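task queued by scheduler; priority normal; single chain, no ligands, no partner chains; default sampling; output format set to structure tokens
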Amino acid sequence: MLTEEQLTKIADDLAEAEAKRTMIPRLTATYPDMTVEDSYAVQNMWRARGEAAGRRLIGRKIGLTSKVMQEATGITEPDYGAIFADQVYENGSVIEHSQYSNVRIEVELAFVLKDDLTGPNTTIFDVLRATEYVVPALEILSSRIEMEGRTIVDTISDNAALGAMVYGGNPVDPASIDLRWVSALLYRNEQIEDTGVAAAVLNHPANGVAWLANKLAAHGGSLKAGEIILAGSFTKPMWVHPGDTVHADYGDLGAVTCRFV
């Protein structure tokens, strides 16, 4: 376990990297004894500073929930991060690429809650009952820690590499559809780059939300009515560059598009 002084220094370094659009060295190289709980402590500091500065917490993201994502990162357990209101874009948005580092896109489903969810024994059925609707979403990844050799300790400290999210398409009642079979075609500049099916997320994307509710309970937190939860990617991360247009076609659930400048 790290000291409070060490945790604060990491939070300071990450804040500076975010402000300057740079990266810091891998935390596990600098602090080889750093634990997962240390990482969540750093993330909590980052979130608390944001809220103190007037940013509004509107939800959470879940990461590393699918085999394709775990293989892409070499990390074998899920993680989570916070989403602030200023990180949410509407469908069709034009987004400044330079505000992020190591910019990649993932294809996901977002759950919007109508009821609170409190662990530690939350199940998939609790999640489905508590969900008002599910909607297509893209996650924009931004890494403030060097990529090579990262572990889950690095990723969690970096707010699970969240840069922003884009939502759109057709909101759907989770009781009206088998969410496991929601699929998406991911395009960059009108060329197809990847495809995926939502069952890749822990066999059912609602399992990711249940995992999150239970993990938050262990950290003294819970999910609140009205929050939006990014349930995890079912495609591998796709690199994007200034000038790229990204389009994800979810079939009956519509599509999500954004452009980077």
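post-processing summary
- Residues 1 and 34 are 6 Å apart (CA to CA).
- The two ends are 42 Å apart (CA to CA).
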